[in-house]
Amino acid sequence: MQAVLVLSNQMPLSFRCSRSDEIADTLRYIPGSSLSGGLAASHSRLCPLRKEEFARFFTSGKIHFGNLYPANFESKELDGDTLPVRSLPATSRSCKRFSGFRFNADHDDEERHGVSDHLILWTLFALNNKTNTQVLEASETCSYQIDNKNCGESITPFNDGFYRHGYTPEAMGISKIPIRVLTRTGISRARHAVSESILYNLEVLEENQKFQGTLHCEDESLWDAFASFLETASEQELIYLGNSRTRGLGKLRVTYKEKIDRDDEMPEQIKQRVITFSEKLKETARTYNLNAPHSLYIPVTLESEVILRDALMRHQTAITRVYLERKWGLSGMEPVCQFVTTRRVMGWNALAKLPRADDVAMAMGSVFLFGYNGAADDRLWKILSDIQGQGIGERREHGFGRVVIADSFHTEVNER
Ligand SMILES: [Zn+2]
Asked: How far, in Å, is the centroid of ligand 1 from the Cα of 116?
């Protein structure tokens, strides 16, 4: 079962993205590993004698702690605690000068020329020997109308941030993520006063933001026990996450925690989304007189970072045909194109008080597109729903490995 968790921070937060002394940037979200580690520390302080409960919550792998993404939306249509917040896919594009979703632009008194997803166009380009550029040219400049003329600015990637789809089809927006830089001085341990020549900067997420994500729990009784712990820890102000917790950073409280039913992982829903995507791709192919030879097209979009290794334990930078066959028994998936970046993932093991070994992960928002000519039967939909439901790769208990099959973003978002 799954539950939604929303936290709000009373103090600035910092989740360092590098071990370098030079770079003090913070991640723009709360990683599942920091959530798990911080709550484990709260549990140790709150009830140090309940060792068995600690193991059930934090080390047994029975609870998967998802990343918590910023959920700061002003519009009523977007402000619902159970509405998921997701990383923008790598295939998302917008106007270079006036980027952003058109929804509520007038209300916000901003000029935004709309967002569109270019996965289908790039897939058709890849399927046709990467020679027919006509399909890409059509989307190179912004067609937003200003005084009956096209805006004409170039279209550029719009994939850095977190969005939410609201209650109505057109309601889509980007979360605000206020950050600032703190400048601090070092304190001399001998004199308990300012230490000479130690001055440093720290980028932080500002106070009073909301962060939302989902937890996967083995069963409801485990969730009930965990929810009760969360409530007590929040009431007693014992929840601290991230870096620099001894320097006045990191305090949060729980503002929402409820069980949810997610039907987007059911085989039937996945089947519908794959068919909708494939039909839209083929329709676009006919418009441009291009080939789309597979019976189905299946996009896999990474909702969080994914750590995959091959048989020789080397980090992979793609979801491969071999992986899908070996791990899921799914043959016939032919990679057509991919939009992927990688990120070095660092971490700190709070229990062992040691740094974790670095991993290379495929970044959230990466998209992989497969062509499929095999049997489109119940077995296929069941495997795809298992992939989305269970996630892929390593450290899934810390929020890694979450994927969406045939994300409706690729078919629905087209504000050109
Ligand atoms: Zn424009």
From this structure: 12
Q: Are 58 and 41 in contact (CB under 8 A)?
A: no
CATH number of 267-412: 2.60.40.4350
Ligand 1 center to 41 CA (angstroms): 48
Mean pLDDT of the chain: 92
Torsion angle (degrees, nearest 10) of CA 193, 197, 202, 207: 30
Q: What is the fold, at CATH topology level, of the domain defined by 2-72+177-260?
A: Alpha-Beta Plaits (3.30.70)
92 C-alpha to ligand 1 centroid (Å): 15
The 10 Å Cβ neighbour count of residue 226 is 23
Contact assessment for residue 83 and residue 173, using Cβ atoms and an 8 Å cutoff: no
Tell me the CA end-to-end span of the chain in Å, nearest whole number: 38
Given a contact cutoff of 8 angstroms between Cβ atoms, the answer to whether 161 and 174 are in contact is yes
Give the amino acid at 18: S
pLDDT of residue 236: 95
Name every residue whose Cβ is closer than 8 Å to that of residue 170 and which is 6 or more positions away in sequence: 102, 103
Q: Where are the domains of the chain?
A: 2-72+177-260, 267-412
**Residue 228 confidence (pLDDT) above 90:** yes
Spatial distance between the Cα atoms of 310 and 330, rounded to a whole number of angstroms: 16
How many Å lie between the centroid of ligand 1 and the Cα of residue 153? 5
Gap between the Cα atoms of 299 and 72, Å rounded: 28
Contacts of 48 (CB under 8 A, 6+ apart): none
- pTM of the complete model beyond 0.85: yes
